[in-house]
Design a protein that fits this description.
elongated, 17% strand, 472 residues, binds zinc ion, alpha/beta, four-stranded antiparallel beta sheet, Isoleucyl-tRNA Synthetase, Domain 1, 2 domains, Rossmann fold
Length: 472
Amino acid sequence: MKKFYITTPVYYVNDVPHIGHTYTTVAADVLARWHGSIGEETFFLTGTDEHGANIETKAKTLKLEPKKYADQIAAKFIKTWQELNIANNNFLRTTNQVHIKAVQKALRYMHDQGDIYLSKYQGWYCRGCEQYKNERDLVNGLCPDHLTRPEKISEECYNFKLSRYQAELLKKIKKDELEILPLKRKNEMVSFYEKEGLTDVSFSRKNVNWGIPIPWDKSHTVYVWADAFLNYLTGLGWDGSAGQSPKFWPPAVQLMSKDILRVHATIWPAMLLSLKLPLPKKIFIHGYFLINGQKMSKTLGNVIAPDDLIKKYGVDAARYLIMSATAFGHDGDIGWEKFNDKYNADLANGLGNLVARVSNLLEKNKLALKLKINSDKKLVKAYKDSLENFKFDEALKLLWQKMRSADEFLSHKKPWKMLDSKKIKNILQPLAQDILNAASLLKPFMPTVSEKIIKQFTAKEIKKGEVLFPRI
Ligand SMILES: [Zn+2]
């Protein structure tokens, strides 16, 4: 049986779930559901990244133990994904003891192999990023993401011999053995490898207590990224053994936003090479949601929370609005007005209205139909191609084109003015078939509504059901 393993990043618990996390997670859910529906054995992993100085500081300001604080935020993520009907197979928390043991075992192996060595590090450290910054990454001496001045830190640390993997990784990326999508992002990374290249990176911190202890030198804790990356393995039950792939390994695709591309295209695959494990087949980088061209931020007060979307539109509509808002690999503008317009146009007046009109006519005329799910092979193929190439918006457009022409056909033929039941049936039968086909393909995006429509249109007597999407 073909296997399909998909991951989101482990989300950092310095913040509650926002629409950015939601975007990645719903996209992964859609793909997992789709691959499952065509008979592949799928595994979908998400989780939370819970160690590091940021979390320690944040917990301190709230007068909580870091673990207590992480428990609260992790619970919020779990609840949000349940509310959004996310069907992940596991939720990995990096404070999980099994994960911690595996990280220690893996790092010990890398150390024994000579890939981790004691060194001295001097550099610009941004607390916000929990990363050392290169001089050239700073803008006027400030971290471009946090607008704060990184600290000059000099400390004893264990380094990872990242430079050792430069040639091999560049080759693999160029040959798409580690495929980076969209192409623009691959080109960025190839250029990074060729112009700047990989230099060894610090894999431990001496003054951060809230982290996994380095097993052979407990005065250090593991650098948060090194800890976090291994979740993709431990989430499958991996125990830290080099050269031993857990079931489902490697990922068919790993989804993420562009701010974490570079580490995922350098440190992460280098760790896998060091651990003698296969690389992920693909990583896909999606864009950011912008509001009127601006990045969402708490200080600007323009944050859209997943809870608010669900409250306003319902779960399935919220999933639809997020996935249809923009092309997946690009930034896109969103906002309440845009969501309202799209909700009314595509769902209330579109899908919902078509289902209501056709089912109402079928009920009135007491017509018995024989319909088949996925009878439109051309549509199924085009939809599959779009979805498997991460073109969520295009996959949905295909379905909406079908429904729009069905709606036009109905308005043009006006079967409600007819008396001959055979003629009426000839008009309604293909329309009902189009609705059933669209509903069945919509399942990965809108699992509940789709199931309702399928039930309605495969019943012995088709009845006008409840209103699917009340107008806003
Ligand atoms: Zn920063």
